[in-house]
Write a structure and sequence with these properties.
Length: about 200
């Protein structure tokens, strides 16, 4: 666990932004604002390609996705009508693990992924153990009817104190969240320049 946290700390310092949502990385950036290595030499002046790559890494890692998963989201977004960048952000936000994170049922996306994988949630009353599942309009996410699952979510709600997103109707009494509309790019508030990511994959 300590090794994993150290690795994440290096990623945060290299990217210059807390992409994992854990407050301890904000403190890390305050104390060590430069990139890993002597005098933060990792942040030298970059070429256009490197800038695009950096933005891609920021967004991909913030959602905790593999390169293959992330590229597939881009391809899916490109195949749909609408502005590719905006569609891509909507698809990323509609991931089940992200929706759980946005609802405040998990403190971080990483925790949300683990909780989904371990079967703590249901989607429309059925099994939901795949973090990359996309939620749709009127879908309802509920916590599994087990005290251990409920305790985990209640603890997250009490500690994370997230602002509620308007595309989810969250009920903290019965621990459920309903998709009332799809998220907008502004609500996604990506930690990266989406246009640079589209340019990276469009070459």
């Amino acid at each position: 666990m300590a090794r994993c946290q150290k690795a994440k700390g290096k990623i945060v310092r290299r990217l210059g932004i807390n992409i994992f949502g854990n407050p301890k990385y904000d403190k890390l950036l305050d104390t060590k604002p430069h990139g890993p290595g002597e005098h933060g030499t990792g942040r030298s002046k970059s070429s256009e390609y490197k800038l695009q790559l950096l933005e891609k890494q920021k967004l991909r890692l913030s959602y905790g996705m593999s390169e293959k998963q992330f590229k597939n989201v881009f391809k899916k977004a490109k195949s749909k009508s609408g502005v590719t960048g905006e569609v891509m952000l909507e698809l990323l936000e509609r991931r089940l693990d992200n929706a759980i994170y946005r609802a405040g049922f998990a403190s971080t996306r990483s925790q949300a992924r683990q909780m989904v994988t371990h079967g703590h949630f249901k989607l429309n009353g059925g099994k939901a153990s795949i973090p990359s599942m996309l939620v749709s309009l009127d879908d309802i996410i509920t916590v599994k009817d087990k005290q251990g699952s409920k305790d985990l979510v209640i603890t997250s709600i009490e500690t994370s104190k997230k602002e509620e997103v308007l595309w989810l109707e969250t009920n903290k009494e019965d621990l459920s969240a309903k998709v009332v509309r799809y998220p907008t790019p502004e609500e996604a508030a990506p930690p990266a320049e989406i246009q640079l990511i589209i340019e990276f994959y469009s070459k």
